[in-house]
Amino acid sequence: MDGTGRGQKSFVGYEYKEIVTDNSRLSFLLDGYESFGWEEDGRLSENAAAGKTTLQQRTVLRMKRNRKLVNKVELTRLERNFEACVDEIGKLEKAKTSAATMCALIAGIIGTAFMAGSVFAVTAQPPYYILCILLAVPGFLGWIFPYFLYKKIAGKQTEKMMPLIEAKYDEIYEICEKGNKLIY
């Protein structure tokens, strides 16, 4: 008899993980990692409320899971597959606007080159006003047109990428479902 009167609590060893993510993906990642046995680590200092610390628009998510899971190897494999799919979704999201940004920048630089030619034409001795006007018109169009070019290309890229992104989300949901079955 130990004389303390306290009940014995069984020891559970945990492994810990920190994930840095955007605030917009926080709930999605929390749901996903819970399917692999991870849970939020609630025992942190007061400034880290509920396992999250906000750093500008990024969040550090602190998680823990039991080290003695039965199917830990398979869960780890599924978790890595999940993380790879999340990274691919991020790349596909960036691809929606990257081509549009490049085309808009190139059009703006060409417009700036025409405007520079216009300035050189008007400051020459003697000034070439007609050449200045002829170069200024495409220069102004080169400054206005990139906005509309960006919108058009970004819209087309979004339509093209959305089925791929949705397919990745479906793959993620299947992975999480498999992981969840292994835990329970």
Describe this structure in words.
- The chain is elongated, with a radius of gyration of 28 Å.
- It has two domains: 14-68; 72-184.
- Strands 1, 2, 3 and 4 form a four-stranded antiparallel β-sheet that branches.
- With 184 residues, it is α+β, with helices and mostly antiparallel strands.
- α2 packs antiparallel against α3 (129-183).
- It has helices at 26-34, 72-123, 129-183; strands at residues 14-22, 39-40, 52-55, 58-66.
Set out the fold topology.
Layout: E1 14-22, H1 26-34, E2 39-40, E3 52-55, E4 58-66, H2 72-123, H3 129-183
Antiparallel strand pairs: 1-4, 2-4, 3-4
Helix pairs in contact: 2-3
Query: What level of helicity do the residues show?
Result: 55-70%
Shape: elongated
Largest sheet: 4 strands, antiparallel
Average pLDDT figure = 87
Number of helices: 3
Strand content: 5-15%
Report the span from N to C terminus.
36 Å
SS elements, strand count:
4
Low-confidence runs: 45-51
Question: What structural category characterises the helix and strand content?
Answer: alpha+beta
| Overall domain count | 2
Encode the helix/strand succession as letters. EHEEEHH
Radius of gyration: 28 Å
